[in-house]
Design goal:
This protein is of the alpha+beta class. The chain has a single domain, classed as tRNA-splicing ligase RtcB (Alpha-Beta Complex), CATH 3.90.1860. About 30% of the residues lie in helices and about 25% in strands. It contains 8 helices and 17 strands. The model has no long low-confidence stretch (mean pLDDT about 95).
């Protein structure tokens, strides 16, 4: 861990390399008058919008929509299956069928999906406006770095993994309350302008509304992953003869929660960071061509009981598409079943940090439990 003393409170970083812009964003966080104790940057930290991805901010009395992010509740669910060996033909069939039947990118289901959470909808304007569309978004993958994968575990079992979030439903909630925070901060001046860190007092009407809407979006995101996993597993089951899922691990990495740290009740914002409390299981993915890990948290106080949410990008999507060689990207995916890169190379393995180095840098935050090696990848 490296400590920077560049603002009002320290910045503690588990990342060996940090972009100048990401460090500037962390300094902005450290100068917030309501920031508590220190700013924590995980081993995968890189520049984001407003604050670094892989950043953890504990605040007193103020919640910041942009410190949660636009994909509220983005996260991963991983499932250990009863299958230990799988043929390449089965992997190819699963990848192909999943691409054909599970909505990806901007696609939605053609008929509404059911969920018991639709029976207890918060009475908030933005949620009422987006609710009908949300019924068609449930169980859809999205694009960007969202994926489903078939993995071979170091425990000899085949695992399934799904990475997705709250879809456009969560985005609309985030956008709505960030706009409200921007307008309020013109008067309140909670934060300096043009830092994209506009906040809401947690005990204000607007702050309570956002906190309620965010938590509902977290539930929606978790259900989205559950439904995706169900549909993915049903295809897997038909192709492999699997009878059951033996274990599930499910985590969020874009959210805020009220927790107690260093003697005070604070709002912990984890933007591209995962909770890693003592004995708590988590998932840290690499890239579509590199290993991922099931981990167990060590409850490190200095990280606010957090760890990285993945390997972390070393280049932007635009830079990846401009600089990565297609043949090199295809070679990095050798042996893994996937649907090719087409025109987009932004998720090629070399666009990400070395997952093994990232894991080594956070040995004091988590311990490795199962190493997962990709066999087949489905991307939006």
């Amino acid at each position: 861990m490296k400590i920077y003393n560049l603002g009002q409170i320290p910045i503690k970083s588990w990342a060996t390399e940090l972009e100048e812009e990401a460090l500037t964003q962390a300094v902005n966080l450290s100068n917030l008058p309501f920031a508590h104790s220190h700013i924590a940057l995980m081993a995968d930290a890189h520049v984001g919008f407003g604050m670094p991805i892989g950043g953890v901010l504990a605040s007193k009395g103020v919640i910041i929509p942009n410190a949660v992010g636009v994909d509220i509740g983005c996260g991963i669910i991983a499932a250990k299956t009863d299958i230990k060996n799988i043929k390449r033909e089965a992997i190819e069939n699963i990848v192909d069928r999943s691409h054909r039947t599970i909505p990806m990118g901007f696609k939605h289901h053609k008929s509404p999906r059911s969920w018991e959470g639709f029976n207890r909808v918060p009475n908030l304007k933005i949620i009422r406006e987006e609710l009908d569309s949300a019924r068609y978004q449930l169980g859809t993958l999205g694009g960007g770095n969202h994926f489903m994968s078939i993995e071979k575990g170091s425990d000899e079992h085949i695992w399934l993994m799904v990475h997705s979030g709250s879809r456009n439903f969560g985005y609309k909630i985030a956008e709505h309350y960030n706009n409200i925070a921007k307008e309020l901060n013109k008067k309140l001046k909670l934060v300096p302008p043009k830092q994209d860190l506009d906040g809401l007092y947690i005990d204000s009407q607007e702050g309570q509304e956002y906190f309620q809407a965010m938590n509902y979006a977290l539930e929606f995101a978790a259900e989205n992953r559950r439904q995706l996993l169900r549909d993915f597993y049903n295809i897997f089951k038909e192709e492999t003869g699997s009878n059951k899922i033996l274990k599930e691990v499910s985590i969020h990495h874009n959210y805020a929660a009220i927790e107690k740290h260093f003697g005070e009740e604070v709002i912990v914002h984890r933007k591209g960071a995962t909770r890693a409390g003592l004995g708590e299981f988590g998932i840290i993915p690499g890239s579509m061509g590199t290993p991922s890990y099931i981990v167990e948290g060590l409850g490190n106080d200095e990280s606010f009981h957090s760890c990285s949410h993945g390997a972390g990008r070393v280049m932007s999507r635009r830079q990846a598409n401009r600089t990565i060689d297609r043949e090199e990207a295809e070679k990095a995916m050798e042996g893994i079943v996937y649907k090719g890169f087409k025109k987009d190379l932004s998720e090629a393995p070399m666009a990400y940090k070395d997952i093994e180095e990232v894991m080594d840098n956070q040995k004091d935050l988590v311990k490795r439990v199962v190493k997962l090696t990709p066999l087949g990848v489905i991307k939006g």
